[in-house]
Amino acid sequence: MQCQTASELMSLRLxxxxxxxxxRALDAHLAVCAACSxxxxxxxxxxxxxxxxxxxxPPAQFAARVMQRVQRRSRRLSLARAGLSVLLVALxxxxxxxxxLRALFSITESVSSVPALISxxxxxxxxxxxxxxxxxxxxxxxxxxxxxxxxWLVLAGYLAICAVVAVTWARLALRRPQTDR
Length: 181
Ligand SMILES: [Zn+2]
Description:
Layout: H1 3-14, H2 20-32, H3 34-112, H4 114-148, H5 152-180
Helix pairs in contact: 1-2, 1-3, 2-3, 4-5
């Protein structure tokens, strides 16, 4: 067999287009021809490299790219889910704790203003009680006078005392809000 024919047969063998007779003839030539044997080895390794490039590598890159995309999307999804859960937890916390806390703080704020209110109320009650005590004392005096000597002068005095007490009470009642503020 000529080396030229062997080269053509080697190309055909790579395509899987050799008959059994041609295969046997090529093998016989390769066994005795070192140059064609070396060529065949080179052709096989080149074919292996080509098939590895066209078949093995791209699928690996494709798979890696797909995995990267899936991971990125799942990361985005988990981030969105985490953000949503944080938002929900914040809403729950605000409804469960912050609103009652705010109510509590507003209560404590009003509590801090309670002593002033109490002092105002106590002052008003003390004022009213003192006025009432004065009126009762005057009534007692007038009643005793009426019982001992029931005259119109005593009645006039009682009315005068009542008028003075009423005027004093009115003055106290009118003055109290001004002095407290
Ligand atoms: Zn040869």
